[in-house]
């Protein structure tokens, strides 16, 4: 508990025998682990709250609804992770920081609305949100960190804005139902394991993508399109792409790395005009 001028401004421990919590006005912060693993189904936060601490509502398995005010600018790491009954959340319009793993393991989360104030989607923020089908990433987001949407089994569609400057590894790894992805014009490469294990994905990469790092499409068993604009490949890029039948290599490709087409059982035709290809 934090007290300023005889007024409680931060709650560090919440004990509750009721289904619903209404935090009183005047509280500005919910402390780290404040409501960790308690039996609540609804939380209402007042406009005075500006910060939710690390793991504040982590593992509140009965939590179904939380009402956040637009005054909140920071949501800490794992703040709502493993809230297995949380289905929908609207993030505050003025949110500036969303900590790593904030909603990881929210396996019934179906919809999330991100504000345009967010610049970065942190490490594993929405990892293993199994029922999340669609998320719109607003213009203004510049960085998506490692594994942000990894293991979102039911994610079907994603649009990345042109404001994106930095993509990290494993962002959509094991999104097994991902079918449609629109990539921005602002990037020229895909990092390691980007679409690895996306077994329903068949995508035509935009012309601005010229480099694929390790394992980008490994185990993408539905992939039929080979990106002819790509001139640099990492190891195992198309390993086990069982639907890939024909490859036309860019003339600038000089070498094929280890395991690039390993176990591509339907691949019968690799075309290259470069006679020095190794």
Describe this structure in words.
The protein is mostly beta strands and 278 residues long. Helices cover 0% and strands 21% of the residues. A 6-stranded mixed sheet has the order 1-2-4-6-8-10, with no helix packed on it.
List keywords for this structure.
mainly beta, six-stranded mixed sheet, 278 residues, single chain, three-stranded parallel sheet, 21% strand
Write the layout of secondary structure elements.
Elements: E1 2-4, E2 7-11, E3 20-22, E4 29-30, E5 42-44, E6 51-52, E7 65-67, E8 74-75, E9 88-90, E10 97-98, E11 111-113, E12 120-121, E13 134-136, E14 143-144, E15 157-159, E16 166-167, E17 180-182, E18 189-190, E19 211-212, E20 232-233, E21 246-248, E22 269-271
Parallel strand pairs: 2-4, 3-5, 4-6, 5-7, 6-8, 8-10, 9-11, 12-14, 13-15, 14-16, 15-17, 18-19, 19-20, 21-22
Antiparallel strand pairs: 1-2
Figure out the total of helices.
0
SSE ordering: EEEEEEEEEEEEEEEEEEEEEE
Residue fraction in strands: 15-25%
Mean pLDDT: 90
Helical/strand content category: mainly beta
Low-confidence stretches: 1-8
Give the beta-strand count. Answer: 22
- What's the Cα radius of gyration? 22 Å
Strand order of the largest sheet: 1-2-4-6-8-10
Shape: elongated
Distance between the termini: 66 Å
Portion of residues in helices? under 10%
Described by strand count, sense and barrel closure, the largest sheet is: 6 strands, mixed
């Amino acid at each position: 508990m934090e007290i300023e001028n005889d007024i409680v401004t931060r709650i560090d421990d919440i004990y509750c025998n009721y289904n619903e919590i209404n935090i009183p006005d005047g509280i500005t912060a919910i402390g780290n682990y404040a409501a960790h693993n308690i039996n609540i189904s609804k939380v209402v936060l007042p406009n005075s709250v500006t910060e939710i601490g690390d793991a504040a509502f982590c593992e509140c398995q009965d939590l179904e609804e939380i009402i956040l005010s637009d005054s909140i600018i920071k949501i800490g790491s794992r703040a709502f992770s493993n809230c297995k009954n949380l289905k929908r959340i609207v993030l505050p319009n003025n949110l500036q920081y969303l900590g790593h793993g904030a909603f990881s393991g929210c396996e019934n989360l179906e919809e999330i609305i991100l504000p345009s104030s967010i610049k970065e989607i942190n490490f594993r923020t929405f990892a293993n949100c199994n029922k999340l089908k669609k998320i719109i990433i607003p213009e203004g987001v510049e960085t998506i960190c490692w594994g942000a949407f990894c293991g979102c089994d039911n994610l079907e569609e994603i649009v990345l804005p042109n404001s994106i400057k930095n993509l990290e590894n494993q962002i959509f790894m094991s999104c097994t139902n991902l079918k449609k992805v629109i990539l921005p014009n602002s990037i020229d490469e895909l990092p390691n394991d980007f679409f690895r294990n996306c077994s329903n994905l068949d995508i035509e990469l935009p012309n601005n993508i010229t480099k694929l790092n390790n394992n980008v499409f490994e185990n993408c068993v539905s992939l039929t399109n080979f990106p002819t604009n790509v001139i640099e490949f990492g190891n195992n890029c198309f390993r086990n792409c069982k639907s890939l039948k024909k490859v036309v290599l860019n003339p600038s490709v000089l070498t094929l790395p280890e395991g690039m087409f390993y176990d591509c059982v339907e691949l019968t035709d690799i075309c290259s005009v470069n006679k020095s290809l190794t």
